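queue> pop job 88
queue> type: inverse folding (structure -> sequence)
queue> payload:
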């Protein structure tokens, strides 16, 4: 019997692909033939998950559709209009029963609409409702929309029947069929949850995470200094795209602080961002290691504390690893997630204002406060960690809803127990 096909769409944003991994793997193990339309850099991981990669960007380069619009995700709107026919032709050959698309993948949402397929929208951030972000984007002085993007919007409206298309359609991707939040439900209020209906919660921690939470192999990222305070810091990748000066300033303050603490050691990841060599050299200290990219899962397994921007993956990985956080959110959904973590008592703010100034003394004060309040922080982290386990245990029920959307017999495709 031929397996039903699910087409998954993900734009070339690393964090977004990370959030889709658990769902891709669970769909493949549930009996679907999963074809993932994304960047070829994820080919090995897609294959490991039991799915098949469809290279979305080599035959259809984003740069040829739009290389100018800011924010960069506006280019994903241009991409959808430029390559809709070619992508649809490729998709028709697969005869999918369902489309799964992370919100920024406008092309996936468009394909589902044009092929009259059910759509599962996977939200890439915390409480990612369009009403929260569209007004700010429309007045943001950083925004610069290219002429090609404006033409793409017209094409999406007139040729493809999307009357609400805009340069910010990458935000407005809620589905009438099912919306998936990549975090536990308790991170949203009841009113917030209702705004995403129909909604399901999936988390972003892979099903194998619990087994790999304490790896016994591989060299320690922080060395052998077991008595040292181990600080892991990462402000993500996208911060350097729009706020490089802000991110650099905070990391400099951290380096200056840790340089004066003989008992501390810091590992700073630049999140894979392109950063000038001079900036990297300026951050280095004898007890501060700067790396272009760190295995964050391993780093959090060793760290005592995490200085974070509160990206969704980073936050929930820290929770799962029982690592208290120093909050320095930068933009989009990060301030709201930082505030939620502070309300839950698992994080402390580093600055009183968004992207506010930070110096070495403020960092030291934050470290000392976490040290004083560590017992309370750890107790609250353990409570919140149970939410991560609960949302993972609920995945089979969500998969059953996905099966229903694809009109597949629950008996023929029984969801795998991912606990």
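queue> result:
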């Amino acid at each position: 019997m031929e397996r039903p096909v699910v087409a998954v769409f993900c734009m070339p944003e690393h964090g977004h692909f990370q959030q889709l991994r658990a769902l891709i793997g669970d769909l493949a193990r549930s009996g679907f033939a999963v074809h993932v339309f994304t960047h070829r850099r994820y080919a090995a991981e897609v294959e490991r998950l039991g799915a098949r990669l469809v290279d979305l960007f080599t035959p259809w380069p984003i740069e040829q559709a739009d290389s100018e619009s800011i924010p960069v995700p506006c280019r994903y709107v241009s991409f959808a209009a430029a390559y809709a026919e070619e992508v649809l032709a490729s998709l028709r050959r697969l005869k999918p029963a369902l489309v799964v698309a992370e919100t920024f993948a406008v092309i996936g949402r468009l394909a589902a609409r044009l092929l009259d397929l059910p759509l599962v929208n996977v939200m890439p951030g915390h409480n990612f409702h369009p009403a929260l972000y569209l007004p700010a984007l429309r007045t943001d002085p950083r925004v610069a929309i290219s002429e090609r993007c404006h033409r793409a919007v017209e094409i999406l409206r007139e040729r493809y029947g999307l009357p609400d298309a805009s340069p910010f359609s990458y935000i407005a991707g809620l589905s009438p069929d099912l919306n998936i939040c990549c975090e536990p439900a308790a991170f949203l209020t009841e009113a917030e949850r209702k705004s995403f209906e129909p909604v399901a919660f999936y988390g972003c921690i892979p099903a194998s995470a619990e087994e790999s939470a304490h790896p016994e192999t591989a060299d320690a990222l922080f060395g052998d200094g077991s008595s040292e305070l181990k600080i892991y810091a990462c402000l993500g990748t996208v911060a350097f795209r729009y706020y490089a000066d802000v991110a650099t300033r905070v990391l400099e303050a951290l380096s200056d602080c840790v340089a004066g603490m003989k008992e501390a050691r810091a590992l700073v990841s630049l999140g894979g961002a392109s950063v000038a060599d001079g900036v990297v050299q300026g951050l280095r200290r004898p007890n501060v290691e700067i790396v272009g990219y760190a295995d964050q899962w391993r780093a959090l397994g060793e760290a005592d504390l995490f200085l974070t921007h509160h990206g969704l993956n980073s936050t929930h990985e820290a929770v799962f690893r029982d690592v208290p956080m120093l909050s320095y959110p930068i933009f989009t959904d990060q301030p709201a997630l930082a505030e939620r973590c502070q309300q839950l008592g698992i994080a402390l703010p580093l600055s009183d204002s968004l992207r506010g100034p930070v110096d070495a003394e403020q960092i030291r004060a934050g470290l000392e406060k976490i040290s004083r309040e560590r017992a309370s922080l750890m107790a609250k982290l353990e409570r919140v960690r149970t939410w991560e386990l609960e949302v993972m245990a609920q995945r089979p029920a969500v998969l059953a809803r996905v099966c229903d959307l694809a009109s597949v017999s629950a008996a023929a495709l029984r969801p795998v127990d991912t606990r």
